[in-house]
Specification:
Layout: H1 3-20, E1 23-25, H2 38-43, E2 47-48, E3 52-56, E4 65-67, H3 69-74, E5 88-92, E6 97-102, E7 115-121, E8 147-148, H4 152-165
Helix pairs in contact: 1-4
Length: 166
Amino acid sequence: MSFKMCMFIATIALFIPSILATDFIVGDETGWTTNFDYQAWAERNQFHVGDRLVFRYKPGSHNVLRVDGNGFQQCMSANGTVALTTGEDIISLATPGKKWYICGVPNHCEPGNMKLTITVLPQLGSPAVSPSPTQNPDSASAAPSTIVISGCHFAIASLILAMIMV
């Protein structure tokens, strides 16, 4: 195999996980607001390490709090939890497992249903891990959601490829 071909394959292999990462707009075109079924939305998507959640809302109207399972059930955050408030809050999914998010504005989490729980799977291309007996298998379908795929990594990979091929 030629040196150029080896470099091409190595470059593509290096960028594939980044290229495959997805930005998920929470709630699709509805965004982060009251009276939306975020659990149904989450079940239509499959989240992996490297993906990002984008919470879009009018600043000052809502916020995003990362909570644990108890905080999710009780619609309460622990002391010291920092609220995300920009209206374009981006959360990188860095580790596999369950993740919980709520709106901390009074009456938005309950009864307004502004709460989201997701299961983050290992990064695409990484070895599969068997679920423990206490975990439920992921039932999310591969149905598409409104997503934004960053072209930055793809552009870098294309540039490197072009330089190698010259």
